[in-house]
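Lecture 7, part B: from sequences to assemblies.

Below are the input chains for today's worked example.
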Amino acid sequence: MKIVKINKNKWAEGLDSLAGSYSLTGPVKEQGCHNFKKLNKGQLPDFDFLNTKLSSKSSVFPQSEAMIEYNLDETADNHHIMKEVKKDYSKRAVIGMRPCDAKAILLVKMNFDTPDYKDPYWLNAYNATTFVGLACDQPATTCFCTSTECGPYHEEGLDVLLSDAGDHYIAKALTQKGEELLACAKWTEAADSTVMEKKKKEAEGKIVSSVQTDQLKNKVTLDLYSAPFWDDIAFACINCGTCTFACPTCWCFDIQDEVKGNKGVRMKNWDTCMSPLFTLHTTGHNPRGEKTQRVRQRFMHKLKYFVDKYDKGIMCVGCGRCVRQCPVNIDIRGVCDKMNGYEPA
Amino acid sequence: MTGYIEKIKQISERLLKEGRVESVIGFRKGSMPMMNEPCIVNKPDKIKDLVWDSNCGINLTNYLTNRKDKICVVAKGCDSRNIVTHIIENKIKREQLYIIGVPCKGMIDKRKAAALATGEITSVTEEGETIRVKGNGFEKAVPKKELLQDNCAICIHRNPVIYDELVGDLVEEQKGINRYEDIQKVEAMSPTEKWNYFEELLSPCTRCYACRNACPLCYCPTCFVDESKPQWVGKSQDHTDIRTFHFLRAYHCAGRCTDCGACERACPQAIKVRQFTKKLEKDCLEMFGWEAGMTLDQRPPLDTFKNDDPEAFIK
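Predicted structure of the full complex, as structure tokens:
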């Protein structure tokens, strides 16, 4: 695939061209944090971040999304008829997501795009989006992507990979969608294809953190489930949803009807397995009523159930967000190593 | 602050060995700079894991709620005031507790330290009142007072108000502090300005509820936002629902909040959620002369009625 050089003095101009055909989203610094926001005309994405506070999963899986609407006014035509909320699925592009977030979107896709079931909201957004990654030349000490079958220059899930080379970016088109985007921005100047390889090796060498995952598949699920370390891991947990909301691979959602007057809308909202409400039955029984059960569920899902079900590694891309943002410093790296090394007595 | 740890370990070991308590709640070293992890120790050989420094900002009273065992807890000034509140509200019994009192000189705000460096902070060490912050090609020593959590900078109750044993001499309390400078600014705003201010303040909220869950006051078996029969609050990112959560959370803390800062420290989006609780703290002080958690002998103003209670707000 094509590799081009984008002089930084052509960057704004190119994005301006893109804005004519794509709706653009990129990292924006607001109130001290970088997060993905819609880029207004002329607004440049701000690449001065280690990683964004929240991942770019929201570009295809918003925290709250209206799916269906209805009218309860019985005098109106079509009252009580569920109608899909009209949405704009014209071309859009995410500019500057980290490669870990792109890999995460592919992991999430396994849930929203299965042979039996396809989530139209997620898939329509996914198909409309061109994913432009920004390689990670200065990974954080909490980044462990090289041990999650990912990496600072990982290409999976991206349509274009950008690498910052000082006065210019090197852009590698990875798919047809990516080539179209580069052409649309009129970024066509040929680049030295060896530079990216060199930078990739350098960046990978800067990853100082890792997890051991090689034994997870062989472990007996119930051994891990009944391992003695869960109470200790869970003690500090305050059961907030920070880890799950910050996580690029957490895909759980809740469906809620919101009615105001006669107008109703059916929403899809991020949910979190850290909340007791997540599993509360209508009978009042809660199979995961205790904190330890919820903490165990999160780690078992990511590091065991997912591994067993899909055989695609762990459900974690090593972005380190949960490590950095957990208010009480529960660290998935330590938990993963504990699980990987656990031998029942 | 780092000098306290040996005493904390000695006391913990003694209590566990004597069987006076079943476990000790304290902190162990975290995996990140400026982060310690709350932990429970119930075997003497684990006591070596305990740490104490200026990164113990989480309020450990949060881990005492409804415990049935005999327990030792390490408590700085604000934690001790929340223990008092917990005892008054029947969330723990005084007889269950052995309180190791820590005279506190304030906790570090990791965001203030992060703001010193352009890249990532890789290590933070403290030498008395100096904090040494290191990053990639970066090193700076700054007075601790510049890095204090906002609530610690204006704290006037650094010494524990209730304890069984102290780990050091009481520290001098800060004097001549206006605790409400920021609140007075908001009070002076017009309704429109206030609306915009709060709207902006809450705009990054993802409703992770870390502020609520880090708070020792928030122990309701089911929080109103988690009720499903009936459901009081919507679950989406609707601004009205977000505001409702924050306003009601704050009102639930009226007359109980000790301004320990755990909520603000926990917020992953760095929202200054104390703006709400502090206003109510100020009102309680002005109307009832009340500071939460200072004594076991008096009921909080919002769960008592007195004939001379102020009623100017009833129109």
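Note for the exam: The longest strand of chain B covers residues 23-29. Keep this in mind when comparing with the next example.
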